[in-house]
Amino acid sequence: MATAVEVHHTALTLRDHLPILQILIPFCTAPLIVFLGYRSLAWPMAFISSLLSLIIATMLLIQVSDGSYISYHLGGWAPPVGIEYRVDAANAFVLFLISATATVVLPFALSSVAHEIPCKNHALFYACFMLCVTGLMGVVITGDAFNVFVFLEISSLSTYVLVSQGSYRDKRALTAAYDYLIMGTIGATFFVIGIGLLYMTTGTLNMADMADRLVGQGGNRTVQAAFAFIVVGMGLKVAIYPLHLWLPSAYTYAPSAVTTFLAATATKAAIYVVLRFMFTVFQPDFVFDTHILVWIIGPLALLAMFAASLIAIFQTDFKRMLAYSSIAQIGYMMLGIAMFSVTGLTATMVHLFNHGITKAVLFMAVGALVLRAGSTFYDRIEGMGRAMPLTGAAIVIGGLSLIGVPGTAGFISKWMLVQAAFEGGYWWLALIIVASSLLAVLYVWRVVEVLYLHTPHPDATHTEAPLLMIVPMWIAALACLYFGLDTRFILDAASTAADGLMAGSAGMSEISSAAAAAADH
Amino acid sequence: MELSTLIFASMVLPTLAMFANLIFAKQANLRDTITFVAALLTFACVVAIAAKVGNTTTPQIVLFEVFANVPIAFNVEPLGLLFALVASGLWIVTHIYAIGYMRGNNESHHARFFGCFAGAIAAALGIAWSSNMFTLFLYYEILTISTYPLVAHKGTPEAIRGARTYLGILLGTSIALQLTAVIWTYTLAGTLDFQLGGILRDNISPTLLPILLALYAFGIGKAALMPFHRWLPAAMVAPTPVSALLHAVAVVKAGVFTMLKVGVYIFGIDFLAETGASDWLMWLAAYTIIASSVIAMQQDNLKKRLAYSTVSQLSYITLGMALASQMAVVGGGVHIAMHAMGKITLFMCAGAIYVATHKTEISQMTGLGRTMPITFAAFGIGALSIIGLPPLGGSWSKWLLMVGSADAGHQIMIAVLMISSLLNVAYLLPVIGRGFYRDDTANPYTGIKEAPLFCWLPPAATAIGCLILFFTAGSIVDFLMPITGLPQ
Fold first, then answer.
1. In whole angstroms, what is the distance from residue B128 CA to residue B336 CA?
2. pLDDT of residue A136 exceeding 90
3. Quick one: average pLDDT of A281-306?
4. Among candidates A430, A441, A491 on the partner chain, residue whose Cβ is nearest the Cβ of B171
5. Sequential DSSP letters for B43-57
6. Residues 6+ apart with CB under 8 A from B125
7. Per-residue pLDDT band at A6 (split at 50, 70, 90)
8. What is the C-alpha to C-alpha distance for residues A130 and A122, in angstroms, rounded to an integer?
């Protein structure tokens, strides 16, 4: 393992510094935007920076697609003393999702932000946005437990600001941001307490090192407490039911571009952290041998799938409905974890990605509706599907993917989840999963009827959204359809990631040493 | 032309017609001509395929793989070819009829209507050519979604309610039950390919077999097995051409076709017969046949009556599968064609009556046969075919089903089919009797003439088709024989 690290370090090409560039580029863009201060420069800089991030994330994903991992030492300090960035199939996948979403959402943001936020704040908005991107990617890429906390705070603080920017449209954004701040801070505190307890027990902050030292510590109360603190703390950020209370308001009142970005990435990054801690830091045996967690996460996941979907059905605001649907969909991802099998975890990883793009489509469509209809209450968006045919069609595609109709991305994740249930012998669970997707039919179809079968509201502007909104929306919508049919990329990446996670930290180094051996020949 | 080219052409042509309708929304004549040409070409493709492969089963044409061993793939086999011939052939007739109906009735949103119609045909052909359950399921759902705008077409509260029931039941059953069954099958057998003799033998315990069959039987909501039949009467709010082609031919036949496919190629007839797993389904199908006939008798709305009649007739085909004897399955397959021809005639006549008189209730049609003789004559021929009287096509499928019942040792099903025929007489013939033989002095039909040419010609043609099918039934039976797995 150590020799592999040495090889990585002596090389001085740019390619070897990709892991740090992934973070540095957006991180440096943020202050640059503020210092230059030109409003007209803010957006191009943010866009170029996220495009570069996407390119880097793609390169990283290709490098680790064989199941190996990249270990990058910050400043040349070897772990466990120095901070390590560690990229494997699982987090390269999430990095790709985050940077791709940022790249697609930014063009959309240009016209949406111009409409929803006053001009003087634009530069600061994009700076915050880049900080948020940095934070989320940092949380995902780092291999250092404390570093996770640092990046978590970067992303959270910038998110609070971003959510509060919705106050120019609706003052309630301020209380939503405040709620989120309180809940997020409690979550982060819990998380850091957990890290502290782990540090106390193991004397290290490097995650791989921590994992080695935690082997056989299953009975240690401190470790158990640390685990509980970390899962609950992160659970708040993930919005695992019933820790979801901040989410509906934050999503509803944030500016459309922010909601789109957060819905597609923020909870996903948090789920990744939960996975990383459950499977790599704490060994899968520790987490699942007791079976306690399965019986906590499983029922909560089911509760989320049903309760949140039911609430979603009775919403009268499209955006709020989508927020509740997100909570329900997070339930699917947690259920995949609770089933504790490679197929189950693959389902979680696949859904992470597929739900990301699905929600991106829908929230971008929400942004377009806000622009034309003024708000997204059902009585305001009546008949808008006919006035805005492209936006309406995108909503239908996103909605079908949310239901999990074949030919859409959402179907693939549902298939994997049901398959995992059958393979695990939980045939009753399979029936429950499909039954919950019937609730999605109800809440999606309510919107479709409102959009197409009602007479339009007189105050709404009956023209299609600007091209800058339509193009990103349709890129995401076509991605929804494409990934519903061509599953090679997504299933390969997700199952490689799931294999790595299921093997725990030991499995990871075995795989990587095998890969390194293969590379030597 | 290559076989694969023909297969793809037959699915792509209706898809192109769909987009052409949306693009040329304003040019009505151009749009309708394009669709007509597309319909002709599609039918030509299917006929060319039939000429090329006959009743053999061709190898899979794999497009790409979605899950391990589960590709999007197509092939041609007798049952699918029959369904494709019926759907694409009747599309031409219905298109002509729909032009007359939509224009004669001053319906709105023609482009959306004809566009979705073409999309539904593309999906039906996709179902026909699917060579595994996954591909079939994909097109099954596309068919549901592309027909939703057609049911909700009028946009009235009643139409919206009907469309909601339609979508709710079809999407609900397929996602909740059929998808579960498909994934379960996949985890059991490791494949979803349609193979003669089934893929489940040795893979499933006999106690679970009826449960899996139930997931399929109820999950295929389009087969309208009770208690999931309510969508079909609800869909009658759609304009009549939709009821005619989709809810008498393409959509419902896609349902029973899927049912036959599952019985023949997923479970295997012999396997079902040996295990008796489908016995309960036979009784449920019998119940549906009788019960919906009784309900049909009570309907005064002509289209509703025909809808319940369809529910009853669809269960003939389900019954054929559930009996699990060679003759019964072939009878079910033949009934797809026979019932399609008969029922589309009835629906088109109902629509013609509506165009000419704007009457929907049977009680208002007294004496109407004398003013609209061609329409009512066509209706009479269609009705006799549904009842199953020679010399009309419907008699053969009923005959085969009875033979099949005897083969399977369930003679009681012969009685069920007999009673059903009598009930058919009771609810279909009074419509004609009322039209021809009773004078209604209080309601003189002044100014009412025969429906427009485009509205009466197609049902007249399909009525003659019913007659022709009687004489060609033998070749259809021979054509379908390979699905029984018997050496020829």
1. 13
2. yes
3. 77
4. A441
5. HHHHHHHHHHHTTPP
6. B10, B11, B14, B42, B46, B84, B87, B88
7. very low
8. 12
Residues 6 or more apart from A147 whose CB is under 8 A from it? Answer: A83, A138, A205
- Return the pLDDT at A507: 44
The two three-digit tokens of residue A174, written as one number: 């301020």
Q: Which residues of B touch A445 (CB under 8 A)?
A: 164, 167-168
Domain ranges of chain A: 291-485
Gap between the Cα atoms of A106 and A104, Å rounded: 6
Spatial separation of the C-alpha atoms in residues B42 and B97, rounded to whole Å: 18
Which pLDDT value is given to residue A9?
A: 46
Give mean pLDDT, residues A456-473: 80
Rounded-to-10 torsion of CA B194, B196, B200, B202: -150
Q: Do A441 and B145 touch (CB under 8 A)?
A: no
The Cα–Cα gap between A437 and A351 comes to 14
pLDDT at residue number B226: 85
Q: Tens digit of pLDDT for each residue in A381-421? A: 887 877 888 888 899 999 999 988 888 898 998 989 998 88
Q: What pLDDT does residue A521 have? A: 42
State which residues of chain B have pLDDT below 50: none
Query: Percentage of chain A with pLDDT > 90?
Result: 25
Q: Collect all residues of chain B within an 8 Å Cβ-Cβ radius of residue A485.
A: 64, 66, 72
Cα separation of B223 and B247, whole Å? 11
Query: Which run of H or E residues covers position B71?
Result: strand B70-74
For position A131, what pLDDT does the model report? Answer: 93
Residue A4 predicted with pLDDT over 70? no
What phi, psi does A283 have (nearest 5°)? -70, 150
Q: Please report the pLDDT score of residue A516 as a whole number.
A: 44
Does residue A206 sit in helix, strand or coil? strand
pLDDT of residue B439: 66
Q: Residue B274: how many CB atoms within 10 A of its CB?
A: 12
Is residue B47 classed exposed, middle or buried when 0-12, 13-18 and 19+ CB atoms within 10 A define those classes?
Answer: middle
What's the pLDDT at A133? 94
| CB nearest to B137's CB, from A406, A419, A491 | A406
How far separated are the first and last CA of chain B, in Å rounded? 29
Q: How far is CA B124 from CA A319, B29, B249, in A?
A: 36, 25, 10
Is A422 in Cβ contact with B183 (below 8 Å)?
yes
Buried/exposed A314-326: b ≥16 CB within 10 Å, e otherwise: ebebbbbbbbbbb
Compute the C-alpha angle B39/B41/B43, nearest 5°: 70
Nearest to A422 among B66, B160, B184 (CB): B184
d(CA A68, CA A516): 8
What is the pTM assigned to this prediction?
0.85
Check residue B136 and give its pLDDT: 92
DSSP designation for B429: H
Choose the closest CB to B66 out of A423, A449, A487: A487
C-alpha B171/C-alpha B167 separation (Å) is: 6
What is the DSSP code (8-state) at residue B267? I
Better pLDDT: A83 or A285:
A83
Is the CB of A415 less than 8 angstroms away from the CB of B67? yes
Judged on CB neighbours under 10 Å (0-12, 13-18, 19+), B414 is middle
Local confidence band at A517 (pLDDT 50, 70, 90 cut-offs) = very low
Mean pLDDT of chain A, nearest integer: 84
Identify residues of A whose CB sits under 8 angstroms from chain B CBs: 400, 403-407, 412, 414-415, 418-419, 422-423, 427, 430-431, 434-435, 437-438, 441, 445, 449, 452-453, 485-488, 491
Cβ atoms of A328 and A308 closer than 8 Å: yes
CA distance B218 to A427: 17
Neighbours of B456 (CB within 10 A): 24
Q: How far apart are the first and last CA of chain A?
A: 17
